[in-house]
Structures are given as C-alpha cells and as structure tokens.
Task: structure prediction
Amino acid sequence: MKCRKCDEKAVIHMRQHKLALCKNHYLDWIPKQTQRFIHDNNMFSTEDRILVAVSGGKDSLVLWDVLSRLGYQVDGLYIGLGIDGGNGYSAESRRITESFAAEHKLDLITYDIEEHEGLDIPTAASLTRRGRERPCSICGLSKRHIMNRVAIENDYDVLVTGHNLDDEAAVLLGNTLNWLTAYLQRQGPVLPTRSGLVKKAKPFFRFYERETAAYALLRGIEYMYDECPHADGAKSIYYKVLLNRLEADRRGAKLSFYLSFLRAKETMSFNSEGDDVERMLHPCTSCGQPTSTPDLCTYCRTWKEVRDRRETMLEQGIES
Ligand code: SF4
Ligand SMILES: [Zn+2]
Ligand SMILES: [Zn+2]
Result:
C-alpha cells in the first residue's frame, strides 16, 4: 500500500481514518494532529510552562518528544516508585527516562518517593489493609498528589499526561458500567485549574495506542516495553480487551464511543456531587494541598498510617 501523500510505501494504515502514510509523513502527521487537539480544546499555548508526567512508557515519552518538536516549553517529572527492587521495573524506567532527557537536552525533575517518605510503594502498600494484594491504591493516590504538588510548587501552568484513546475509553467504560456520575462529570481531555489544583490536559486523547507505539518505533525512541508487574489483572486491562474486541468488529468504535461521550456531556447534566466536593475543598493541615477530607489530605493520612504501623511493627520486632 502507498502513502496517501507521496509515492513511498506506507508504514501504517489507520483504518478508522482511511489513511495510510509513509514514515516521514506519519512523523509529521502526529505532531500536526496533536497541535490541532491542543488548539481545539484550549489546552495551553507556547507562553505556558508545561510539566509532563513521564513514566518511561511510550505514551509519555512520545508526548514529551512531540511537544518539544512543536516548540512548547516542557519539562518532565519522573516519580520513583521503587517497584521491583534495584534492577527491576522502576530502576529501568528511570534509566530510560533519564537517557531520553539527556539525549534531547530536556529538563527532568525526579521525585523519589522513598527519599521523601522513607519507604517505597510496595513496602508502604504491604502495611495498608487494601494494599497487601495490590499496591495500586496508594501508588495512584501518591502519584496524583505528587504531580499536582510539584506542578504547583514549581509554578507550572499545566500538567500534561500521555493518556491515549485506549486509556480514556477504558476509564469511560468503567465509569459508565458503574454509573459513576461524579467521575463522568470530570472525565475529559482538559481539567481546568481550581482551588489549588493545577490545570490538567491529555493532548493524546484521540490517538489509538498503536499510533503512539508506531511513532515511538519510527522515531527510534527507546521506551519501557514491560508493564508494571502489578498491572496484571487490573480492571482497566480487562476493559481494554473488551474494547479491542468491539473495535475488531467495528472499526472506529473506540473513537466514536469516546467522542460521542464528550459531545453528549455538553448537553447532559450529571448529579452535582463533584461540585459539592469542590465547594468543600480546603488546604490540608500538613502539606497545604487541597482536600475535601477533614484535617489531613488522603495522601498525608495514608502515609501517616503507614509510618505509624511501621513504627509499631519495629517496636514489636516484626520486619515488614
Ligand atoms: S500498576 Fe504499578 S504503576 Fe500502576 S498504579 Fe499499580 S503499582 Fe502503580
Ligand atoms: Zn508519504
Ligand atoms: Zn496533605
């Protein structure tokens, strides 16, 4: 098959767009499309200071690459989770992220959880009731907290993440199956700034996962191929499998599911639970980040419980 724009051989065929492109035209198409999504959704401008959350995976590295090619002022934030010991998942993803930043002469902020909290994520999770089987709860809440805190404390205008269409459609399916109206209300490619929370944007929300993977491959971007070992069995992966089946039967189904939701959201009204939470936001008495829970925010409360439990165990001579 030939490229739609020249005589070269096409390297990718995007059936949902009825578009086949050669390597050079594909590597131009992705930034052009990204720029269109940024503009149409009022995400940010070249005047803004942008912080991109980078995990070492393809989506976040590709996003960093594309935004810097488009001329945005964009720094990276890598959060060290301490997963799988010295040579495992976190160590490798950190190596990949640091080498990408060095190669492209980009600024990277590294925030190591163990350095700040005294424990890595798996150890902390093993000390909580919910985290014994899977550390995702404390991991997710810690990442969200740190991303916002670093962005606010360093005066960034917007925090961007590499969530792609597959991620967003899977979250949407989960929210819809459970009719989580407050989450549906807040789901979208842009979350405006409010009460101490930085503006958030997802410039890749319309790209299929295979499209960002193809870009990484064609640009020669080294990325962390393996998933986090704790992702196994996650509900979001199950939803992705279901959506892939749907897409195989009906091309463009994922895109249409998500875009129809965004269109419907403009006219639909969900309950106002989300707004009530927002009205109740106040600064956490320990870290100053906005929270709707009394006194301490969930991050400070959870990590305090972890440290207290650790102390009690050490006093009793039990190793975690
Ligand atoms: S899958 Fe891994 S990185 Fe993702 S939330 Fe769970 S522990 Fe954290
Ligand atoms: Zn071409
Ligand atoms: Zn706090």
The chain has a mean pLDDT of 93. The pocket of zinc ion (ligand 2) is lined by residues 3, 5-6, 8, 21-22, 24-25 (CB under 6 Å). The chain is about 50% helix and 10% strand. The two ends are 58 Å apart (CA to CA).
